[in-house]
Structures are given as C-alpha cells and as structure tokens.
Amino acid sequence: MTPEKQLEKILNNEENQQFGKGRSPGQDALREFRRNKIAVGGVIFIILVVLAAIFAPVFSPYDFSQQNIHNNRAKSFEGYDITTDYAEENCHWYDTPLEWGCTIFFAGSDALGRDLWSRMIYGTRVSLSVGLVAASVSLVIGLIYGTISGFAGGRTDMIMMRVVDFLYGVPILPIIIMMTVYFKAMARRGVSTGVMGVLITLNRSTGGLFFIFISIGALFWLGMARQARGQVLSFKEKEFIEAARAIGAKDGHIIRKHLLPNVIGPLLIIESMAIPGYIFLEATLSFIGLGVDPPTPSWGAMINEGYPTIKS
C-alpha cells in the first residue's frame, strides 16, 4: 500500500475523524460500554425480561390461575387432552396466528394443571414489581433521613445515626418475617376499619404484594440513609453551598436546589444494585409461604411447589 493510500485510510477512520472535536462524558461512557460485549448482552437480557413482565399476556398463552387437573404434572412441550376444551376456554392465543401454542405446555404444568410458562412470565412481573417498589421506598426513606441527619449536624446527627447503628444490630430477616406474619394474621381476621383496613384492602387488590412492599422497603433504608448522610456531608461545605447561605437562602431551598440534585445520582446507582437482593428476598418469603397470596404466581412459590417433584 502506497503512503498516500495509508494516509487516506487513517483520515477516513471514524475515530480519527472524531479526534479533536471533543466528546462529552456521556459519549465516552457509551463508547466504552459498546466495547464491553458482556455488558451489552446483560442489558439486552434485562430489557427482554422487563418486556416480558410488561407484556405478560402477550408472552403467556394461558391464564396463570386456570387449573386443568386432567393434565397435571405435564412435561415440557407435552400436549394435553383436547377433550377438556382447555384451549377454547383458557388460551389467550386461541384463534390467533399463535394458535399452535395452545396445544402444548411450553414448560409443563404443575400439580393443579396450571401452565408453568404462563406462571413464570407473570412471576417475572411480580418479582420486578417488588424490586422496583421496594427500592423506591428504601430510597425515599433513606434519602430523607440521611439528608436531614447530615445537614443538621451536631447532636441531631449523632442521635439519628445512633438510631441507625442500633437498627443495624437487629437481624432484618426475622423482623421482616414477623411483620409479614402479623400483616397476614390481620388480613385473615378480616379487619375492615381504620388504617389497617385500608392496608388490607390495598394488599388484597395487589395479590399480597403491598405488605411485602412495606416489609422490605421500610426496613432496608438503613444503608441508604448512611450513604445519603455521607454525600450531604461532602457537599454541604462546598463553595456553592456557602454562596447560597451568603445570599440568604433558607435551608429548605439549599436542600432542594443544591444538595439533592448532587446527592441523588450516586444514590440511584447504589439502590439499583440492591434490586436483585429485594427480588431474592421476595422469592425467599414466597418459598416459605409468607409471600404473595395464591394464586398470584411468584418464583419462590413455584420453587416450593415444584420441590416435591425434584425430591421424588
């Protein structure tokens, strides 16, 4: 290759064309992200899971709660007895271009003849709902508590942090189990008045998810409170905060306009990394029978239901 051709190839290179133009930090981050094939694959997988949860009726052929005792314990891709008229009555894909999917159970069926594929897809919706809502509750409580503690300083900060330290010494899982047992006991007693009556109504309308939201989100804010306090302490002595005080800005204005916009970014990243833990905890509660109410599907409950089959 002649020197002229080599020079032309270098000048036509996309990266060299961008050289000197300058890229924003976001463009640099996106460029590095695209180079990480594992990260790209992970994002694609997460997007597919989220889409499956959002459009669960599209991806699930059957009603997740419909029982078909004549075809219980069916194996994967095993057909069922047409004489039960199961397809005509319960298949979402019946008389559609996907009608072929109504003659088999993709992932088999459980002891009650319910389609495991449909229950798994709807269980994805339950798990993601718990993860996102619990993370939001934890973020809000921890952010408010930690911001007040860090901004107030002095004795107020010391007392609030000692409360957090004390709660850190209490085992969280037994507390969550006791709270869940209490809420379920109140629901079985049929309390219909007052605040508890409202909570029970909300819990029934969500298939048992509301009490899980409360139990997990209301107890996992401790780490978020510490992180928020640390962020506030690192920012509250900055020059722009001192300048806001110098022009007479009130504390509430400083927190809303100057502290929170700078603090919230790292906290969102930290809380997003905690979502898998919330999903795992919900599955654990459902596995031991303290999760969502039947017939609402949950991954933990499905593992519990299939465990006897594995043993046998």
UniProtKB/TrEMBL annotation:
GO cellular component: plasma membrane
Domain ABC transmembrane type-1: 124-312
UniProt record, GO biological process: transmembrane transport
PROSITE patterns linked: ABC_TM1 (PS50928)
InterPro entries in the record: BP-dependent_transpt_permease, MetI-like, MetI-like_sf, OppC_N
Protein topology in the membrane: Multi-pass membrane protein
CDD domains assigned: TM_PBP2
Bilayer-crossing regions: 38-59, 126-145, 166-185, 205-224, 259-281
UniProt keyword list: Cell membrane, Membrane, Transmembrane, Transmembrane helix, Transport
Cellular localisation: Cell membrane
Pfam families, alphabetized: BPD_transp_1, OppC_N
Nucleotide-binding recorded as keyword: no
PANTHER family, A to Z: D,D-DIPEPTIDE TRANSPORT SYSTEM PERMEASE PROTEIN DDPC-RELATED (PTHR43386:SF1), OLIGOPEPTIDE TRANSPORT SYSTEM PERMEASE PROTEIN APPC (PTHR43386)
Protein name stated in the entry: ABC transmembrane type-1 domain-containing protein
Lineage of the species this protein comes from: unclassified sequences, metagenomes, ecological metagenomes
